[in-house]
């Protein structure tokens, strides 16, 4: 998820694939928002699974291209996002819909591991564009809420609160992803800043120290 490349960087054999990965993330975030807030019912799960499986294809390709260009944080993040957040979640949606009664508390353990990974990797994105860093920070709230929710150890009322925290955090992530993808594509195409895309907080902090 490193946006320091642009489409007009002809030194690369491939254009920056990040915008497509962000679109896939946004679609998943919007759909999860609808499911977690009750805007759609459980009958939508197989359809959501289809979108997640489609997102897996996109993000897996993005991961490979990012890794090929030495993008350590972005490539690895997209790699585990594509597999766990897209592929596994999509397959689980299908299993839970067609095989009800499964002990889904195992998801709490898996999401806890993923929440810890995202939380501990967050500082790496301090050197990424500000919008991407903000997206990752907000994503932490969503994943941690989902992990606690899926453990099934809290009351129904608090579980509902966690679902809504996750839902709105994901909605914000989706909106940030859509904006950043547009900024990258439009700015990269025209070779100038059409949509504001602030630089890394890390760079700003370093400049302040120098001054």
From TrEMBL:
UniProt key word Chaperone: no
Superkingdom assignment: Bacteria
Keywords recorded for this protein, A-Z: Membrane, Transmembrane, Transmembrane helix
Positions of transmembrane segments: 20-38, 44-65, 77-97, 109-126, 131-149, 161-186
Family matches, as InterPro entries: SatP
PANTHER family (alphabetical): INNER MEMBRANE PROTEIN YAAH, SUCCINATE-ACETATE_PROTON SYMPORTER SATP
Protein name as catalogued: Succinate-acetate transporter protein
Organism: Paenibacillus harenae
